[in-house]
# Entry
Amino acid sequence: MNLYAYILRRLLYVIPVLLGVCLVIFVLFNLVAPDPAFILLGKHATHQQIAELHHELGMDKPFIAQYFDTVKTAFTFDFGYSWASKQNIWQMIKAGAGPSLSVTGPLFVISNIFAISLALLVAFYRGKLIDKFVLVLSIAGMSIPSLAVVLFGQWFFAYKLGLFEISGYENGFPNFIPYVILPVILYVFISFGGDTRFYRTVILDEAYQDYVRTARSKGLSELKVMFKHVLKNSMIPILTQIIIQIPYLILGLIFAESFFSIPGLGAMTINAINNSDFPVIKAMTILSAVAFILFGVITDVLYTVVDPRMKLK
Amino acid sequence: MRNIFTTVVLLLSAVLLSSGCTKKQDVNEKVLNLVSPAEIKGYDPIQADDLYSGREISKIYEGLLQYHWLKMPYELVPNLAESMPEISKDGITYTFKIRKGVKFQDDAAFPGGKGREMTAQDFVYSIKRLADSKNQATGWWVLDGKLAGLNEWREKNAKLPASNYDEEVEGIKALDNYTLQFKLAKKFPQFMYSLAMPFTYVVAKEVVEKYGKEFINHPVGTGPYVLPIFDQGKKITYTKNPTFREKLYPSDASPEFKNLLADAGKKLPLVDKVVVHVMKETQPAWLKLNKGEIDYYSVPKDNFASAIKDNKLTPDLAKKGFILEIAPALDVTYTAFNFENKLFHNKKLRQAMYLAFDEKKSNELFYNNTAFPAQSIIPPGIAGNIKDYLNPYKGLKLEEAKKMLAEAGYPEGKGLPELKYDIPDSTVSRQSGEFFQQQMAQIGVKIKIVTSPWPEFQAKVKKKAVEIYGLAWGADYPDAENFLQLFYGPNKSPGANGSNYDNPEFNKQFEDAVVMQDSPERTAKYEKLNKFLAEEVVAMFGVHRQSYILEHGWLRNYHPTDLHHDAVQYLNIDTAKKAELLKNF
# Structure
């Protein structure tokens, strides 16, 4: 199939997915979530004020009309204004994206390079002491709750040793750097165990294939075998694992942003949930859905690049 | 492979090399570093219904009145008003003289970007803005039904596409540029307190109109600090308002604050810059306090044992120059019954449940034994609280409780349905719910704990969809009316009376008391009402909490307070002492 036709077809899938996402968030918000009027109006709200606010927010419209409003938002990307902060939601997203990316960007790059390199190393020395050591370390990393890592890291590295800022954030490069180093290091540690184990398994799966044995029997060095053959042929699951992380980069790290007082999109989303700020929740959900679809398409296209045998259907 | 290793090693080295990357404090700069434990919703005074937004708004905006910084009990004094108002004999008309020469902060909304003089008309506009239903003000309740003609104006304008701010309202008039007159719909002396609350702070019409929906993020007031734009960030930096009027630090004080008079007569504000760090998590804030990066912070529950022993600081903290401030909060915690449920009309049932609850243990478990047991609803420090009064139904008296339950018609709980106990879904609330469940089980009362997220919990109370629920109430102003109204019949849900208690006798006595000016007679009436609620066991009153706050030795003039939203302007930093004390960190 033609690449462009495939991309177009996959992008058209956005339509039913977005309709479904709209339905889910609409049902959750209208049937499960509490009435935002009680939060927005405070503890002294009267019946009349609640009714007036429902009218103002369009919550007294028939359900079907409200659903179409949600659908319209999803397809026009006109997210409007936050109910809580009264800010334009696109401006809020723009303001939050920088701080989020300043943490998730370096984290994404470092953690993947680190995990793939380590996986290659332990695959190379499979069964040896270093493999066993990294295995134990990975399992330990996966077993320690991320909260414990953050609490300890903040106390030990920032407070006791005074190496980093405890928390906070300043906009603009390079002002933000002192504030993001510690969260990045801690989150590399949190993610390295799972990632390394995954990449090691993928690499070892390939390492025992017949063509690898053939390459070795041809007399190729182990380094060449690992990089030219094994790594290249392991790229499909590695790519999938890497690209699937990208939408999360955009959405920010909810827990880290709260602990390190980083004004990113994760903190914004949590705030919106706490305040029943439906327009912001809606915007973030729609953007996530679109991001996942988009990066799904990118992954598929990249498959054909790394493995020409793959055909797009 | 070597290249990849090199890259990884280089990257790690880069990270490690930059590990010394911390910002150094300039101790010579007079900067206050404070914490807000909640997000700031924005800077519109009429929406300042939470303590933290109120505090931020009060750095920029001001009202007619304020609480004297160095007097307890709380005392109202003029702020933007030149003097206290002239009150007509019938207690209906309040006439204020407004301070002359007070300027709004410079902003592009004004011609030439220069802030203009504030006038009485600005207050008329600001009050109407609070009343305008199109603004959905969370603060409307302070004036709802209080000013002559204002509710009518609100209702009339609600139907119009745009509200008519030029239409005269009898209850709020600018007699000239510097004279403002309020006319009450009925006598209500507590009205004065509303003029010290952020909801009634003065705003400029030009600014509201220029920024429209985004006004909430463009604060322009008359106050001591300026913030050009609020970007919803986690760090809010205020600088001194260069056009702030000549406002001086007070020169008189109550005996307990005489030690805070060193800056008497100095021009306010006393520090050049205020940085507010929005930090929801307690650990980073506590660590920052211990590093000297913030100036004061309340002791988190989890750090209490390591910081305080026998109500004193541990030697470690004392050595660093910390000062411990303990202050009773103007609040009460209580377990409410929903009187819409006929079951709770049985007074003996309520009394039996209260007698079965071990408040001492609860205080120990949930407040580190730092709270005062609440005998009724009015906290100490507010006229109407009865010193040394002991509620006969409070405290663990199991045998008496069992006997009372039998008299109520439910011996050992037989015949009594399982009661639902609604609480917000935080860990501490859940633990306190379980404790309540255990206590009631001692006499055979079965409790089912129902947890909901805070908004849903609130909604259930407002919709009367609860049976028993736990809550706390903090004072909006220092008058017993603000607490007693929680059981006033006409305030039933969705009003503040979530118990839906409606006793005609109590209602009448409450109505008689609240229209009286502050006097020994009114205090006697408040005390009587307070005792009545206690002995009726309209709720199971828990505790009045206390704040435990650590401040650094270099911070001057600080004292914990519930109602001084504008405290920051009085605070000062002793930079020499800071440099000295930081050597111990």
In short: The mean pLDDT of chain B is 92. The longest strand of chain B covers residues 331-337. The radius of gyration of chain B is 26 Å. Residues 96 and 452 of chain B are 46 Å apart (CA to CA).
